[in-house]
Inverse folding.
DNA sequence: CGCCGACTTGAAGAATTTCAAGGTGTGTGG
DNA sequence: CCACACACCTTGAAATTCTTCAAGTCGGCG
């Protein structure tokens, strides 16, 4: 019996492709670890020695220029997979934003296990293809959208991911009185790092939306979307 | 005996994971097609009915805003795979830049075949992981680099991909007198679409590099890199 | 020779960044 | 309980970069 039996992401992470015996075999080479906000699991340019499943918390993937400008190139949520199997170096750092629990495997161990369990590798492929789609959509935002449109797009995505109504909203049946509320997992600086903007621009755009009545900002991290339609119009 | 026997990318495309019998089985459900410059294989938002291997030529993946701004989110070279298996819609258009030859499979056929040939799915996974790495690197460029740095980065990548010395240069043993020459596969407008810049900005940056003596531009599409070092400094 | 598309160049304008203060709110120690 | 420090956020004004708009120029091709 392994700790996987009670894992909250066992039905969604790539290990969901495994049967109980296989789970047990895999868990034998893994270990759990809790990361505090700011703690990193992998560093840009370093040897990619480990891979992991995220169980709880949020992590960021970041890439930086030599002179220290940083870009967040991905956000990682529970059940997501991080690390670079079949490659020797990680091209980005992986850092916890909240307290984050991960399930870690040596890259070599994982590769060996994955190659003998095609169903799990298939799950990883599907996940990677989705992530590539999401990343490319993000490129349109970075390359062609104004600060305004970026923030609107960002808030919509966060609303879908984080509001109590949750991802189910994407079905299109938003409540008529759609007061979507959530807490941002990112600081203003980090939002800037996601969107390719400075912290000042992010702040100005947030407060512009607030004074237009489209959103409310009850506290630093809290957001209430008053007018989802308007936000969608602005996002383009 | 199938046309795969003489395929120029047979050692590099994902089908290289297959043995001769398997190749034959796969080729039975595929067909070749030649696309003229500007012709598309898939359209953004449409059902993703087919997937393909690129045999010859270059293609672009593009995503657009409602009002027509376009971002190139990927470039596809021979031996690369295009299309979105295991997903119902393509999030971007796939369009030939040169005369391009592709080897097309119905998505359903491909998925079925892939799932019963883990070695090929593994190749696809490796390819997808590499593409995701490359895409994330590109995000750093779009989010944080100046026009100047973008063009320098772009020219370096093109030099590596296209110069007669070829990708082998990445080993680090550039010739002392490094006159790297190549023809761009993209127009100025398309370079802008890759970099998230306007055609005018691209043109100005190119000509700035030219008047600084770092590159030469013998014709519209031709580029000679005179000073690779300087370009690397500018790229950051 | 002249047209056309692709590229270049200039000047004005807009958006975002940069630099510089000024708030706000939370936790800690007095 | 208050005061202070600190981190984070906001706001303003100037500077910069890139875009936009508007002419040109170049080179190939009928």
């Amino acid at each position: 019996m392994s700790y996987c039996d009670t894992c909250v992401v066992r039905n969604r992470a790539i290990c969901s492709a495994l049967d109980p015996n296989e789970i047990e075999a895999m868990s034998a080479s893994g270990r759990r670890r809790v990361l505090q906000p700011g703690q990193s699991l992998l560093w840009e340019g370093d040897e990619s020695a480990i891979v992991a499943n995220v169980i709880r918390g949020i992590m960021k993937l970041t890439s930086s220029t030599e002179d220290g400008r940083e870009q967040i190139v991905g956000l990682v949520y529970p059940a997501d997979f991080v690390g670079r199997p079949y490659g020797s170096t990680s091209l980005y750092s992986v850092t916890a934003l909240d307290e984050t629990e991960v399930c870690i495997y040596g890259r070599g161990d994982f590769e060996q296990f994955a190659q003998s369990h095609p169903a799990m590798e298939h799950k990883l492929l599907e996940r990677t293809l989705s992530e590539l789609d999401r990343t490319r959509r993000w490129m349109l935002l970075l390359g062609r959208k104004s600060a305004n449109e970026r923030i609107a797009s960002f808030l919509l995505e966060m609303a879908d991911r984080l509001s109590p109504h949750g991802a189910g909203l994407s079905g299109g049946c938003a409540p008529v009185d759609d007061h979507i509320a959530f807490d941002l997992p990112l600081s203003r600086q980090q939002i800037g790092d996601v969107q390719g903007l400075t912290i000042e621009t992010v702040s100005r755009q947030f407060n512009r939306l607030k004074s237009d009545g489209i959103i409310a900002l009850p506290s630093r991290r809290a957001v209430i979307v008053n007018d989802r339609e308007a936000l969608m119009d602005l996002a383009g």
